Each structure stands twice: as structure tokens, then as C-alpha cells.
What we know:
By secondary structure, this protein is an alpha+beta fold. It is 44% helix and 13% strand. Helix 7 (234-242) packs antiparallel against helix 9 and helix 7 (234-242) packs across helix 10. The radius of gyration is 22 Å and the shape is globular.
Amino acid sequence: MKNKIFLIAVIFIFCIGIIAHIFFKDKSDFSEKNYKLMKKIISLEKAKFRKLSLKVEPFQPVLTGDHLKFVLRDDLGNQWLFKEQNDFNQVKKMLAVYQFTKICGINFPETHEVTLTINGKETNGIITRFYSEAVNLGDISPEGLGKKSIEELQRLHALDWLLFNFDNTAYNFLLNLRDNEIILIDEDCAFYSRDKGIPLSDFYLYNGENKSYYSMIYAAFKEKRLSLDLYAPFGFINYLASLKEVYSTDLFSDLVNDKFLLFEGSLKPLVQRKAALFSDFSSFYKILSAKGDSQFSLDRTKYAPDRWGRYVYNKLKKEYKEEK
């Protein structure tokens, strides 16, 4: 009888230990989990892309910009957008941004480095998945978007701010008409030093010439044309701020010596901005709310980073199964 009681007690303690491990383990381990899963997906995507046969579409959409662009179709029926890019550092940056968006749970088109033969000449560039069923936000005001899309744009604002990307006009976002998901595109201007010292509130609330879609959202909110959940992006923001450098910002380490970018030999500007991300946006939203600190306050402990981390992990697991 004593042996049975002892055995039951051991099993009970073991079960309690397992439950405690699941619920109280280090919350930051999603940095490593999501990073490793992202790398597996990237490897599978590369292997599949190498096997594709690409042909230029006979009827090209109107594509604007400074670089040569055109749409191709692969033998599986998928469309791709090629953009000429001879700056190798710019290519590395776009590949790193793509990987970073994946560990953040952000929708960004599959991206590859490619060399194509055009008119008998080898041309280097970036190729991304092209969404014919998506439209840019150029003709869609913030009031015309749903709550889910607005909240995703609030999260994208934090991401763009972290990556020093100030090119966020309506044409840098797509709305997928099939599922109403927001897709981020064209992060070409990330890490340029323009306006790097300007505060969030000055740039996105008071800069009248700023054509940022984020500014349009905040203007619509302040003018009471749009309802905004001021607390919505902070789970995502805390996840971004809590990512371990070795699994996040270090993705950009190859760019530190690019003289055209802001790094000046070190990832310090990016690491510092990541560390201040939660407090920066907390202050920004307090100003935006115009209700005073007493009515808008954030307890960071309520926005545990593992919640968004688990969402990203499940999203990546699903993508990994589909790729396999």
C-alpha cells in the first residue's frame, strides 16, 4: 500500500513538473525556435526556386520606379516580380529583411537573389512573389479598411520604425483581396540615415508633408474619422523588443560597413532602437491619445512576448509543413 502511495506521489510530482515547465519556462526561447524554423523554410524555398523555369509574361502591368522591373511566370503558374539591383549590399539587405519579417510573423513576399539573361546580358536583381489578386493602398483610405487591417498596419509601423524605413506610402502596402491580409512590400529604403534622429511623434503626427500611410491613419484617428485600438500593437512590439540579438538583429551584420547605410561599422543603432521600442511607442501613443497619462498607461508585463512568439511559431510551423 505504501509503495502504491509513493508511486502515485512520484507520478503526481512529475506531472506538476511537466506542467510547470510548459507554462513557466523561459519566454524568450521563441527567439531561437522561430529563427531555426525560419531558416528551414528559407532553405526549402531556395531549393524549390532553383528548380523553377521562369518566362516573361507577354502582357506586363504598369510598374513604376527607378529600376528595371517586369513580371515573370513559373511553370507552376505563380507570378514573380523581378527588380534589377546591381548593389550587392542592397540585395543582402532585402534578403535579410525578408528573413526578419518571417521571425516577426509579418506577411512579406517570398524573396530570392537571381541573375537573369535579358537581351543577351546577365542582369542581377531581386525577385519576389507577385500578387495579382492584391491591390496597393493608393486608392484606399484608412477608413476603408477593416479593424484587422488597421491593427496589422499599427504593427508594421513598429517594424518600419525599428528598421529605420521612412518610405511607407500607400504604395508600400498591398491588400490581398482573397483574404483581406495586409502585405508589406518594398523595404528598399530600410537603414538609410535620413531623419534617423527625429522623434516618432514629430515625424508621424506633425510633419505635414509626410506622405506616410501611418500618418494618414493617425490623422484619421485624431479627426475622429477612424476608431483605433491604442493597445493593439504592444504584444507584437514587446516581442520585437525581446528578441535575442543573435536570432534577430544579427541578420543584418553583413551590412554594417555599407557607407550608404546608418550603421557606421556597428549594429549599435539598431540594437539601441530595439531596446527602446516599447517605451518609444508607449510615449507616442500617449501623445496620440490626447487623454493624459492617467487614462493611457501600459503595464509591460501584460504584453508577454511569448504570446506573439507562439503565434509566429504556429504560423511558421504551418508554412514549413506546406513547403515540405
